[in-house]
Design goal:
121 residues; Trna Endonuclease, Chain: A, domain 1; five-stranded mixed β-sheet; 2 helices; 5 strands
Amino acid sequence: MSEKNKKDIGKEGEEIAAKFLSDKGFEIVARNYHYGHGEIDIVANDKGQLVFVEVKTRVNLEFGEPEYAINPKKIKQIKRMAELYLFDREIEEADCRFDVVAIVMGDGSNPIIKHYENAFY
């Protein structure tokens, strides 16, 4: 079995997160939204609230819990991308929040998924 690269692991994690959120009743509005050099992994609607979701995936815990990769610089970038998304889509008023979905793949058959609603402001 070959080593999966980070991009493949990230894509797989985003697929898992999108299904997880859909199963929880979220409507997926956009995936991998790009603007300039930034990206939002998932934009969803949760009971009328626009949710910007950052997905962090790890194969194992060798480098720590995936959610710990979201540092102040990353939070600033996510917030900026959310502002650009609203601007780009001409959304003037929206109730928004930021969620994080952290995934540890393990053996791949039963990933551990943690969902943090309102992860930051």
